[in-house]
Design goal:
This protein is α+β, with helices and mostly antiparallel strands. 31% of the residues lie in helices and 22% in strands. The protein contains 19 helices and 27 strands.
C-alpha cells in the first residue's frame, strides 16, 4: 500500500475540494456517471418494496478492462491460424498473459486507493487484476457512488435490490475501470437441464438401446452411437473443469461409476467465494457423470461459486487464472439481455484469457429455443444465451438422437424441440457481439453482422435422455446442459492424444470447427442436422442457427483434430 500513498494524498485533496458539488443533484465536472448500471427492464416489471437498510452490507466489484486489446485480438488470431508457423499453438502461460494484457499494477492500486478513500473495504483481489471486490454498508455504497439502493420484488415473488441511478465516479478512476458489478442482484443464472416427465425410471434389464436404467443413454451407448468405439483414449492425465453454482453428493457419482464399471471418480472441489449456498442440484451431478461417461479416467475439478453476478465472474476467473484445466464446461446461463454491458465485457476478458492460454470453453446454449429469456419473463422475444453467445466460447445446442434399438448404432438426429415452455435447443443471433472472423465466411449464417449461435450440438432431448444417478436414484435428464460436458469430455480425449504426441492442446476450438465445417471433410467429421427447428430458426444443410455444425462423428473428428497437418490443409 506504500506505493499508493502519493496517489492517495492527491486524490483525497481532489475529492475534498469537490465534496459539496459531488453531493448536489447535478454531478460536478470532475465526476462522471457510468452508463448502463440500472436494470430498468427488471425494475419496470417489479414492485418497489422499500429503501435498503443503511447498515445492510453490500459487496460490489470494480471491473478493469484488459490492456492492448488490439494486440490481444491479433495474437489470438495468429495462435489459432495453422498457417502461422511462428505463433500457431504457442499458448501463453497465466503469467505471460498477465504481463502482456492484464491491467497494470499501478491502475489496480489506483482503484484500491480510491475505494479506501471512499470508506469501502477491499475484501478480494484477483491475480489478473481484472476484478477488485469492495464492501461496505449500504449507506457507504450509496454515498460512494451517489445512488440510492432499493429493494424490489419480481412478479414470481423473488426479491432483489437495484440502484436508482448509474454510479458516479471520479474521472481519474473512470478512465481505468470498465464499470461496477454488484449494485444490483436481479439476475439469476439458470441450469439448463430437463428431467424426463415420466418420473423415476427403473432398470428394465432389456438388451435394447439405449441400455441404461429406465431406457436412458449409458456411457457405452454414447460411445457406440457417436462412433467413439475406435478411440482408445479415456481422459487419463486430463483435467476437466466444471463451472457450477450448486453442489452434489459424491455418493451419487460413485454409484454411477460403479454401476457402469467406470474407474473410481477423481473429484476435486474448488470453492470460490465460499462456494454455493444453493445446496444439492441435479445440474452438478449430471455434469460430472456425463463428463465421466466419455472421459472416465480424467480428473474432474468442480469449481463451485455463489449464484450472483460477482460469484459468476469470480468462478470463471478462478478457472482462467488457475489455468490447469484445458477443457471447461458450463451449463448455467441467462439471456444476454438480462445483464449489462459492463458485466458482459468483464466476462469476455476472462474468456479471452482462456483462449490465449489454450483452454477450450463449452457453454450450453439454453433450453428455451430461440427465446432464451422466456423462463424469466414469459415473453416471446428472440434472445440468445450468455455465455454461449460470447465470441471466445463454443456454444452447444441440442438435438434429439435416434439409434438402432437392436444395435445402438446411430440412425439420425433432429433439432430438439418440445414446444415453447417445454424445452428446445438454444440458438439465434447475438444483439451484443459482432460476427467473429472465423464465422464470417459461412454462407448459411442467419446474420452476416453479429455472432451466430450455437456452434455445435449434441443430444439434449429428455425423451432421448441420459441415465443419471441423482439423489440416490436413477433418473433421466436432457437439456443442453448435458451436451456441453460431453463435448468437454470429448476434448479431453483429444488433448490426451495431443499430449502423448507432444503437440499443443486443442484450445479455443471454433476456428478449427468452422474450417472443418466449410471444408470437404465436414460430412465425414460431423453429423449435419437438417431437420427440425428451435421454435424460430430452421435446420438446414451445413451451418444453421438451430444446431450449428451438428454433433461430432467421434472417431472421424478425433482423427482430424489430433492431426495438425490436416488442420493446416483446412486453413488453406
Amino acid at each position: 500500500m506504500k506505493k499508493t500513498l502519493k496517489y492517495c494524498s492527491a486524490l483525497l485533496l481532489t475529492l475534498a475540494l469537490n465534496t459539496s458539488a459531488a453531493s448536489a443533484e447535478t454531478s460536478h465536472p470532475s465526476f462522471v456517471r457510468l452508463p448502463g448500471h440500472v436494470p430498468s427492464e427488471a425494475i419496470a416489471k417489479a414492485v418497489l418494496l422499500k429503501n435498503m437498510d443503511p447498515d445492510e452490507q453490500v459487496s460490489v466489484a470494480f471491473t478493469l478492462p484488459l490492456r492492448n486489446q488490439k494486440d490481444l485480438e491479433e495474437l489470438l488470431q495468429r495462435i489459432y491460424d495453422p498457417a502461422d508457423q511462428e505463433h500457431y499453438g504457442k499458448f501463453l502461460s497465466s503469467e505471460e498473459f498477465i504481463e502482456k494484457f492484464a491491467p497494470t499494477e499501478e491502475d489496480y492500486n489506483k482503484v484500491t486507493a480510491y475505494a479506501e478513500i471512499l470508506g469501502l473495504t477491499v475484501h478480494l483481489t484477483h491475480p489478473n487484476r481484472t476484478l477488485l471486490h469492495v464492501a461496505g454498508p449500504a449507506k457507504s455504497i450509496a454515498s460512494a457512488f451517489k445512488v440510492n439502493l432499493h429493494h424490489y420484488q419480481h412478479a414470481d415473488g423473488r426479491k432483489f435490490y437495484a440502484p436508482d441511478n448509474d454510479p458516479e465516479v471520479h474521472v481519474s478512476i473512470a478512465s481505468v475501470i470498465g464499470g461496477v458489478v454488484g449494485l444490483d442482484n436481479q439476475a439469476l443464472w439458470r441450469p439448463y437441464h430437463r428431467k424426463h416427465k415420466s418420473g423415476e425410471p427403473t432398470h428394465a434389464g432389456s438388451r435394447s438401446f439405449p441400455s441404461g436404467p429406465g431406457g436412458g443413454f449409458a456411457p457405452q451407448d454414447l460411445i457406440k452411437a457417436y462412433n467413439l468405439s475406435g478411440v482408445q483414449e479415456n481422459g487419463s492425465n486430463q483435467i476437466i473443469a466444471l463451472f457450477e453454482l450448486a453442489s452434489y453428493l459424491a455418493s451419487d457419482i460413485n454409484q454411477y461409476a460403479h454401476f457402469f464399471g467406470l474407474p473410481a471418480p477423481q473429484l476435486k472441489n474448488v470453492l470460490v467465494d465460499g462456494g454455493s449456498k444453493s445446496g444439492i442440484d441435479a445440474e452438478v451431478t449430471l455434469d460430472i457423470e456425463l463428463a465421466l461417461a466419455l472421459a472416465p479416467a480424467s480428473q474432474i475439478y468442480v469449481y463451485e461459486g455463489p449464484n450472483s453476478n460477482q460469484g459468476v465472474l469470480d468462478t470463471y476467473n478462478r478457472i482462467a487464472t488457475d489455468n490447469i484445466a484445458k477443457q471447461v464446461s458450463t451449463s448455467w446461463g441467462l439471456g444476454e439481455n438480462l445483464v449489462n454491458a459492463q458485466y458482459l465485457n468483464a466476462e469476455n476478458a476472462i474468456f479471452q484469457q482462456m483462449a490465449a492460454q489454450g483452454q477450450t470453453m463449452y457453454a450450453a446454449a439454453g433450453d428455451s429455443g430461440a427465446y432464451d429469456d422466456y423462463g424469466n419473463n414469459s415473453s416471446k422475444t428472440l434472445v440468445v444465451d450468455d455465455p454461449a453467445s460470447q465470441p471466445y466460447v463454443v456454444g452447444v445446442g441440442g438435438t434429439r438422437l435416434s439409434v438402432n434399438s437392436a444395435t445402438g448404432v446411430y440412425k439420425s438426429e433432429s433439432v430438439w424441440n418440445d414446444g415453447l415452455g417445454n424445452g428446445a435447443g438454444g440458438g439465434g443471433v447475438s444483439k451484443v457481439w459482432s460476427i467473429p472472423s472465423w464465422q464470417s465466411k459461412v454462407s448459411t449464417l442467419y446474420s452476416k453482422t453479429h455472432r451466430n449461435v450455437p456452434d455445435v450440438s449434441l443430444n439434449a432431448d429428455p425423451n432421448s435422455g441420459y441415465a443419471i444417478y441423482y439423489n440416490g436414484q436413477w433418473q433421466i435428464y436432457g437439456g443442453t446442459s448435458c451436451a456441453a460436458p460431453l463435448w468437454a469430455a470429448f476434448t479431453a480425449l483429444i488433448n490426451q492424444q495431443l499430449a502423448a504426441a507432444h503437440k499443443p492442446v486443442l484450445g479455443f476450438a471454433n476456428p478449427l470447427f468452422y474450417a472443418i465445417g466449410t471444408g470437404a471433410a465436414y460430412l465425414t467429421d460431423f453429423h449435419d442436422i437438417t431437420t427440425g427447428n428451435n421454435l424460430f430458426y430452421k435446420a438446414q444443410a451445413g451451418y444453421d442457427n438451430a444446431s450449428g455444425w451438428g454433433s461430432f462423428n467421434g472417431a472421424n473428428l478425433f482423427k482430424i483434430l489430433t492431426n495438425p497437418s490436416v488442420a493446416l490443409e483446412l486453413s488453406k
